[in-house]
Amino acid sequence: MIKSTVFVYLTVIPIVLVSFFATAQQQTNTKNKYDVAAYYWPAYHNDPRFKDIHVFPDGKGEWEAIYKAKPKFEGHEVPKVPLWGYEDESKPEVMAKKIATATKYGVNVMIFDWYWYDNKPYLEDALNKGFLKAKNSNDMKFYLMWANHDHTSYLDPSNPDKSKVYWYGGVDRPTFEVMIAHIIKDYFKKPNYYKINGAPVFNIYELSTFIKGIGGPEKAKEAIDYFRKKTIEAGFPGLHLQATLWGNIPSTLQGVPGDRIQTQDETLEYFGFASMTNYQWVHLVAPEGDYIPWAEKSISNWAIWDKSFKIPYFPHVSIGWDSNPRFPTTKQGLIVNNRPEYFQTYLEKAKEYVDQHPGQPRLITINAWNEWAEGSALEPNMKYGFGYLEAVKHVFLDGN
């Protein structure tokens, strides 16, 4: 089924010009026919707020969890060792290498996991000091996924109790307004911020958390409408709101006018979302056993979502899953045998899905560029070298 999203265009001349140049630039400086976007986990530097929650005393961020990780059983491939070593991503020269490598192999968009806790940002240095100050920053697009989950001791390998909450993910309306002012001014207006039809793309990871924090569905809708209004006032034709599709999208909303929200599709329509994608297949299928059955079960949802949602779905492919570096004392479920050639098979399926949906942008998301502590990284490693990146290049660049 071919789906399309209706965008609102304003006729004011300056706004039309902004849209024209934003769209034109998005189509330049790339040899891709597809937008291949990899999630970026920005925790591999010494963020000053690590001291607030007493994690990573070595001063290297979550690299500490990787190089201290130990195998849990014979044949357990932990740690997965980065080919480039344990580099500081907040340095522009380090990020310049990542950008050059990513774009060479066909990854032309980074989706930064982005955080806002206690009315201030967290883990922004990889983006602000590294990516945006790299000499080749404009060679690559980026956008934000607001990772608005509670920040817990899940990140702390030294704490066996993963239920401790350091910061809550919900925000009230005044905090939300401060947050989006920063987003619009410091990110949306960057020439390489990723846009669809001129509208900046912004992903919300946990819709339920946003609704709860801000005071319910109606107040959440008012806040999103305000966000859209301020984005338009900043010179853009609209806001392209993207949902992370998983169980955190409520299928019912209580107290909305008419009280008729009975599906996730109706929920996304109520708030004005324009598209959706996944963050990780672990949200869809429990991580146990071989990669191929896990992948097949995960992508079997694509046909279901085609029928049950009105807005476009951008296909997602995960590289793997193994969060054991964050759990030194207990074995966690994991995916094995996630070889680059198997990953390539599902990139090909994602490309086929996009080709079968010509009414929507050619966007594919991948988990992830560097989720080393969750066993899902495109970055070159000591075992497969550039194998995962070669898979991307073969599917999306070679022969196009």
TrEMBL record:
Pfam family, one: Glyco_tran_WbsX
Sequence intervals crossing the membrane: 6-24
GO-annotated molecular function: transferase activity
Keyword list, A-Z: Membrane, Transferase, Transmembrane, Transmembrane helix
Protein name: Glycosyltransferase WbsX
Upper taxonomic lineage: Bacteria, Pseudomonadati, Bacteroidota, Chitinophagia, Chitinophagales
